[in-house]
Amino acid sequence: MFRFAFYRLLQAIPVLFIVISLTFMLVHSAPGGPFSADKAVPPEVIKALEAQYNLDQPLWQQYVSYVGDVLQGDFGPSFKYPGRDVTELIAAGLPATAELALYAMLVALVIGVSAGVAAAMRPNTAQDYIPMSAAMIGICMPSFLLGPLLVLIFGIHLEWLPVSGWGDIPGDKILPAITLGTGYAAYIARLSRGGMLEVLSQDYIRTARAKGLSEPVVVAKHALRGGLIPVIAFLGPAFAGLLGGSFVVETVFQIPGLGRFYVQAAFNRDYTMILGTTVFFSTLIIIFNLLSDMLAIWLNPKLRQQTQGASL
Amino acid sequence: MKNCARLPLLFSLFLLMPTLLLSACGGGENNVDQGNRDGTLHWGNGTEPQSLDPHIATGVPEHNIITALMEGLVAKDSKTLAPKAGVAEYWTISEDGRVYTFKLRENARWSNGDPHNAHDYVWSWWRALQPALGNLYAYMYFSIDNAKEYYEGTITDFDQVGIKALDDFTLQVTLSNPTPYFLQLLDHYSLYPVHRGTVEKFGTADERGTRWTYEGNHVGNGAFQLSAWKINRRITVQRNPFYWNADHVGLNQIVFYPTENAVSEERMFRAGQLHRTSSVPSDKIPSYLETQNSSLRISPYLGTYFYRINTSVPHLQSKLVRRALALTIDREAITKNILKGGQIPAYAFTPPGTMGYYPESNLRFDPETARQLLAEAGYLNGKDFPTTEILYNTNESHRKIAVAIQQMWKKHLNIDIKLLNQEWKVYLDSESIGNYEISRAAWIGDYVDPNNFLDMFLCNGGNNRTGWCNAEYDYLIGDIAPTVKTHAERLAVFGRAEKLLMDELPVIPIYTYTSISLVNQAVKNYPSNILNKANYSEIYLQAEPQQMPLTEDQY
Asked: Which residue in A165, B117, B203, B312 has a CA-CA distance of 20 to 30 Å to A94?
């Protein structure tokens, strides 16, 4: 297992290098510079600013210097927010984004696994059709629609929950977590249903039932472990997606997260911020994919054997 | 099997329990009610500020916070914007209008208790004129004698610039020409002083973006001092006990929120989380107007929405063509049917009423004359007129206006127009290099004077971007206006220049902006003005007795 993780981490190095290089090329080739503004910027100012951020150097020199800094863990200063380092801005936004992703994942797992398991227990009945139809609606409903809808109902009409903020008013994390988690809940519901249906038809489940075990015990103790493997494989990319894709929810609910910086950086041509956040999110995606693969291997004896075989 | 089917349901309820419990806590006192009691103003501020350094910052959100933290030599009346005493207790102006002598208040202090004197201004203004600092508002100093020359490096001795501290509390400023709006400039944040000790503690004077403006470091001279800066969350300022007029400050605290999304901001206002919003979603304005909701505030704003015409494009070089285009825009229809926010149709470039200036204009909606002019230019009934492109930055309101104008020009002139939207930075790039035919634009005044609008179109004006250059116009704005003796004469010169601009039409004015916001009834002494500038030291909160909450229908 450790050897597997080690090889996967080794593979990540060229991947990250390619990500940095491609992003660097793309941001520098995008039209419009970081210092352009609607009011004319005097040439003296442009010159001073370019010198300050090393933009007066040849592009290859900027690239070499940037890669060198990144290797030392320095993402450089933000162009948009003078005096703020990219690392500092990532550190400022990450806690809210990570917390939001965690709660959304909990919502997604609770709703998704429950619905998927319930549907798999009685396939092709109302107990299957209703949660699966709801899942399809959940997949189709974008967060920029669901968020304001929930706010309107629970925030404005019923006045049960705050309409925005993060950690300021009790309960202000509920609606964002549900909004972000719903789409993923729907995916997880479909994956759980598929996984459970397959497992429940296996011989060992029949054996467990034949031994006289009650159905809850059969499901909870024997079926869930195998049935949720597809869900676990999905968790890594899903968590990375939740971290990197929370921009809309952060905007709708005024959450001080990283997603807003990420998107705004592109609009502002904040080169270092774009690069820093891209590298950061790429690293997270690689790590979460690795973790979910390792978890899947740990849960699935078949995969474990294959990995050991490959390692030998 | 039945028991088993209930298992997931029970599991879900168990895990959702904390959520349900938390929801029960949601019904507490909202920000506004609490703020009204403890004197905290909750202010929707648009975006996260880039910087709170007055010599680096640009933009309205930055302006709002900096004016709470700092004060200039001269302040403005909240309603009329007439200059009034700020850090300077009084001032005198020489007969030739060039020398201003300011007597500073001896009880003025920085927020750390340090004395605040005339030398602070000399040092701060020297700092603001260092090109390495990247001050985009350096041009605000250029009316001061030799300031422009120093900034551009023509002279290197700052002693030659017309800024002198005669003693600790007397500052003398010499202008290169009489500048009637100079006192107004002193209330712009780019001319605010900074605390030398603090700036130098965190870097050199001309170093851009040091940490001196951060929470715990910032030192200002305004009615409030920075107490917390939580990135993308909120900026909190508290009453400054060292402010010279601290006894008359009505608020204890202001919380500025980066409310980027207008729809979310409006919801926050309705839920009692904000006293004031920075904007109102345009599709919500009609319902607020219909229900006569007293929270909605619409007031004239010193800004013009216009179309630039690239006069180097062959078929747009003709003055007749440009006039035909300008005469077939139904501005009333645009403001009433599309914008719906009380915007004023613009028939001249400078907003009417700017320092008592009302530009004359022969622009109007006149399709008949426009068709004749187009025919005179060689395009009878629009025949052979090349398909022309309107460039705008991606925004729903700009798109709607461009579509309306496209239809108006097709209907009245029978010419084909293509629409091209570009992302903001790409659009800026295209416009600045002249890679457009007709382009949407806007200009918001920094100070209340026609000069701030009309000097844009000087031949070498950086914001001209139309390729239009007129020697007579340059002479009137650049040479005559600064030297005339009386205000009336000056306005007459501007009138002549603007008439010339509206005859030649390198720009087509469309409407004058309004500032639109939602303001809670508890916010007192916050009058509207055309710069949409709030004087936080005068605002106070007083909840209306037994104020009934508005129902959904009333919004």
From this structure: B203
